[in-house]
Amino acid sequence: MSGFSVPAVVLEQIGSLPTLQTVTVTPPARGDVLVRMVASGICHTDISYMRDARVTPVVLGHEGAGIVEQVGEGVTHVQPGDHVVINWQAKCNQCRHCLTGRSDLCENIQTTAEPRVFRGQSPLAVMLNAGTFCNLAVVPAGGAVPIRKDIPLTKAAMLGCAVATGVGAALYTAHIAPGDDVVIIGAGGIGLNIVQGARIANAGQIIVIDLNQARLDLAQQYGATHIFSGQQQDLVSEVRKLTSGRGVDHVFEAVGTPSLMLTGIEMLARGGSLILVGAAARDSVLPFHPRRFMSQQQQIIGCIYGNIRPQVDLPLFADWYAEGKLRLNEMHTASVRLEEVPEVFSSLDKDRGIRPIIEFEA
Ligand SMILES: [Zn+2]
Ligand SMILES: [Zn+2]
Predict the structure, then answer these.
(1) Which class does domain 4-160+328-359 fall in?
(2) N or C end of the chain: smaller count of CB under 10 Å?
(3) Which numeric CATH code is attached to 167-304?
(4) C-alpha 311: how far from chain center
């Protein structure tokens, strides 16, 4: 297969650790964009692929930013040299939801027309139509969203998943109104961005729960008004106490654990919503008491990618970072080279903080 020979981190099969391999990336065809990756965040979903990838072998990575290297025929919205954030939900612009103004619900997320990454003659899958743990990524046109050039791409990478999902969950999934009280369970990369989204939406009380004190401290810097250790037994009554007994308007569960979702339901006010942001195991079940939930007029809402409109929101979030409205520097807690990624996956017990970010060699 002719193309560019580059290193990539590949997950061979479920239950194994990813390895560094040499792959061939073909030039972009019609409607594709070839991006030279500059930075890619290691997101929890990359790690959970070791237990639940739908297809293997697969090039990991989906949160990234880079510089356009080449564009395929028909691509006009970017040109070589542009800085782009990878959007792993390129919309079709043709399905019923896209045509009725709800492209966040697109039923036909775009991939490249043919595989663009090969090992020998065999095509390799790429995670979430992206595969950013590779020096080069070929994405469908909508997967490369141009942003301003004056912010570091190491920070811009986080816009593509953690920020999109977290800030989007607060603004576009929950539609937090000024003064709404919220609880955020889990203060990792996504949870901290829900905290900033809630702050930007002028939420009332922003109550954050996590097991890790360093994360809680960071949550406070990002706008949390109250923090609690997840080890505390009486969290529901603490939340009720803070809200004169009424409960909160939104609970964001950013861990993916049914028992925490149930705790979240107990914290809801009348008309409140539980937003499921954390990815639960595919076989997990949520048993809850529907009677009280019914009479309290509550909701459970699933949230993927924060219901953002990538072409509009990713450049907007880049502006907010440049203006100081959105904070990213504190989340970038470790930098690693691509070769070190397998080691990161094999030593997950070692605390690397919120976001280890792969910085590619120029
Ligand atoms: Zn992610
Ligand atoms: Zn669509």
Answers:
(1) alpha beta
(2) C
(3) 3.40.50.720
(4) 16
Contacts of 73 (CB under 8 A, 6+ apart): 29, 30, 31
> What pLDDT does residue 351 have?
83
CA of 190 to the centre of ligand 1 (A): 8
Where helices occur in 268-359 by DSSP H, the ranges are 290-295, 310-323, 341-346
Quote the ligand 1 centre to 295 CA distance (angstroms). Answer: 35
pLDDT digit string (tens) for 194-225? 999 999 999 999 999 999 999 999 999 999 99
The distance in angstroms from the start CA to the end CA of the chain is: 24
Residue 345 amino acid letter: F
Q: What is the CA radius of gyration of the chain?
A: 20
H/E stretch holding 263 reads helix 258-266
How many residues in the chain?
362
Please give the backbone phi and psi of residue 158, each rounded to the nearest 5 degrees, phi first.
-65, -20
What are 332's strand-pairing partners? Answer: 355
Q: pLDDT digit string (tens) for 101-146? A: 999 999 999 999 999 999 999 999 999 999 999 999 999 999 999 9
Ligand 1 centroid–CA 42 distance in Å is 8
Which ligand minimizes its atom distance to the CA of 305? 1
Q: Write out the H or E segment, with its range, that includes residue 152.
A: none
The CB density around residue 256, as the number of other CB atoms within 10 Å, is: 17
Ligand 2 centre and the CA of 100: distance in Å?
10
- C-alpha 17 to ligand 1 mean position (Å): 18
Q: Measured in angstroms, how far is the CA atom of residue 304 from the centroid of ligand 2?
A: 15
Domain positions in the chain: 4-160+328-359, 167-304
| Count of CB atoms situated within 10 Å of the CB of 279 | 16
Going through the chain in order, the beta strands assigned E by DSSP cover: 4-11, 19-25, 32-41, 58-59, 63-71, 83-86, 117-119, 122-123, 125-126, 136-140, 144-146, 182-185, 206-210, 226-229, 248-253, 268-276, 299-302, 332-336, 355-359
The reply to whether the predicted model has a pTM over 0.85 is yes
291: left (phi over 0), alpha (psi -120 to 50) or beta: alpha
